[in-house]
Specification:
The structure holds two protein chains of two kinds. By secondary structure, chain A is of the alpha/beta class. Chain A has helices spanning about 50-55, 80-90, 105-115, 120-135, 150-160, 180-195, 205-210; strands at about 5-20, 20-35, 40, 65-70, 70-75, 90-95, 165-170, 200-205, 215-220, 225-230. In chain A, the strands form two sheets. Chain A has a six-stranded mixed beta sheet, sandwiched between helices. A four-stranded antiparallel beta sheet of chain A has the order 2-1-4-5. In chain A, a hairpin with a 2-residue loop joins strand 4 (about 65-70) and strand 5 (about 70-75). In chain A, helix 4 crosses helix 5. Chain A starts with a strand and ends in a 10-residue tail after the last strand. Chain B is an all-alpha fold. Chain B has one domain (about 15-195). Chain B contains eight helices and no strands. Classes of the chains: A alpha/beta, B mainly alpha. The interface of A and B includes residues 84 and 116 of A. Bound molecules: adenosine-5'-triphosphate and magnesium ion. Adenosine-5'-triphosphate binds next to strand 1, strand 2 and helix 1 of chain A.
């Protein structure tokens, strides 16, 4: 039986100890995300957004509480299973793109398919299709340094989609982009969410992203302050 | 909640590791060249001495007389190989440090610790093959020149090619062994890297 929520967190906490002082990066977060939802997470710097993503993405273990993805408590998973989760179920998009400099756009996008055990030519065909879908069909063999910031983020989005994940975690995906390029990226993400039904969670300071999302989660000091319906800010269309 | 865990296989075949490792060596050539230089020099020294030793033995068999390598030369060789290993380790540690983000990203995309380990070890083997062959080539030229001046080029002609080939094989094996030993610790460090830390780390 598929659970109604694709992601649930229960009393999720992550404490850090720095020089004898406890920093509560997350402190009892209860969050439920519907399948196919587009959720924005906002909050001041240090609110715990990235920490929450690390927990949901299975990159870090909580001090307390649980993360349940598709009905499975991920604290029960071993290293193999967590790697599989990161590889197949979740796609990551970062503020700084984090493409691999020595690989071409095509190779970057195909990389996750290698870990997923997809045959090479099939993985590359898939990567090519994805790059075409994000409008980079003519940049397949360019290295990240030969691409603009917006183009690099498109490559990163294509890479995040390489194994058809159910969830995309985007940590300030427009943070390093200008207004126009940021808008293009937002439209692209919203498109993925609407057309492919990918659950999209995006941490952002960007009002345009908040406007595009279904719900907005406000975080502060490791806690959820409030949750509102999105779409309250009109999304700005560029001419 | 008795949900069946839907979990598949995460793979990173040796072929993929070689392809990715080869790309890395090629495209980060400056860094690779440093590690390779250490291997090349150590191996060049080793193969020069071994080849000289072979030539001396051929000479001794043919002409009599007791030409041998001096024992201090073996000590020198040992020291040079230790220096070689230490410089490869050092250079590889810097490479790991430079690739923090890349390693973190790969782990985010599903790479296991053992995959990262494999990638670094494979890269070190590629470097060892290149550096070892180059080192042997240098050793061959150096020893032939040296023997030609002392004993005459005839000795080289009298040496069976099979023994030169066997020595090439030994040299490559030694090169791979040294490089692997030298890379073990850096590769382990890379494999154990916490992706959260690696991605927080600003270059
Ligand atoms: N490894 C760590 N060691 C100690 N403290 C940490 C560590 N990682 C995060 N923190 C602390 O946890 C808190 C939450 O950090 P987090 O990165 O999740 O914030 P954020 O909401 O993503 O902020 P930003 O908008 O700046 O990216 C911060 O106070 C941060 O200093
Ligand atoms: Mg953050």
């Amino acid at each position: 039986m598929r659970s109604e929520y694709i992601i649930e967190t229960e009393d999720l906490a992550r404490y850090y100890e720095v020089g004898g002082e406890v920093i509560k990066a997350l402190d009892g977060v209860n969050l439920r995300v519907h399948r196919g939802e587009y959720l924005s997470i906002v909050g001041p710097s240090g609110a715990g957004k990235t920490t929450l993503f690390n927990m949901i993405g299975g990159l870090d273990r909580p001090t307390r509480g649980r993360v349940i993805i598709d009905g499975v408590d991920i604290s029960q998973l071993d290293a193999y299973e967590l790697a599989w989760l990161r590889c197949r179920k979740i796609g990551y998009i970062f503020q700084t793109f984090n493409l691999i400099d020595t690989l071409t756009a095509l190779e970057n996008v195909a990389l996750p398919t290698i870990f997923a055990g997809v045959p090479r030519d099939e993985g590359e065909r898939k990567a090519k299709r994805l790059l075409e879908a994000v409008g980079l069909g003519d940049r397949l063999n360019h290295k990240p340094r030969e691409l603009s910031a917006g183009q690099q983020q498109r490559v990163a989005i294509a890479r995040a989609m390489a194994n058809d994940p159910a969830i995309i975690l985007a940590d300030e995906p427009t943070g390093n982009l200008d207004l126009h390029t940021g808008m293009e990226i937002i439209n692209l993400l919203r498109d993925l969410n609407e057309k492919r039904g990918v659950t999209l969670i995006s941490a952002t300071h960007d009002l345009k992203m908040i406007g595009a999302s279904d719900r907005v989660v406000y975080m502060r000091d490791g806690k959820i302050e409030k949750i509102e319906k999105g779409g309250q800010y009109p999304s700005i269309d560029f001419p | 909640m008795e949900e069946k865990r839907e979990v598949g296989r995460i793979t990173f075949s040796l072929i993929d590791a070689f392809r990715l490792g080869y790309d890395n060596v090629k495209r980060r050539f400056n860094r690779a060249a440093l590690s390779m230089a250490a291997i090349t020099l150590g191996i060049a020294f080793f193969s020069t001495l071994s080849l000289m030793d072979t030539f001396f033995r051929i000479y001794t068999q043919a002409e009599g007389g007791g030409l041998r390598m001096e024992s201090y030369q073996y000590w020198l060789l040992l020291v040079s190989l230790v220096v070689c290993v230490v410089s490869i380790t050092n250079s590889m540690l810097i490479a790991v440090y430079e690739r923090y983000r890349e390693i973190g990203t790969m782990k985010c995309l599903g790479a296991l610790d053992q995959h990262v380990l494999k990638l670094f070890l494979v890269e070190s083997i590629i470097l060892a093959l290149l550096g070892g062959s180059l080192g042997y080539g240098i050793g061959l030229v150096a020893s032939i020149i040296s023997v030609t001046f002392t004993l005459g080029f005839n000795i080289v002609l009298k040496t069976p090619p099979t023994s030169l080939l066997a020595l090439l094989g030994e040299t490559i094996l030694l090169s791979v062994a040294l490089s692997t030993v030298a890379t073990m610790y850096p590769a382990y460090r890379a494999a154990k890297l916490d992706p959260v830390e690696a991605l927080r780390y600003e270059v």
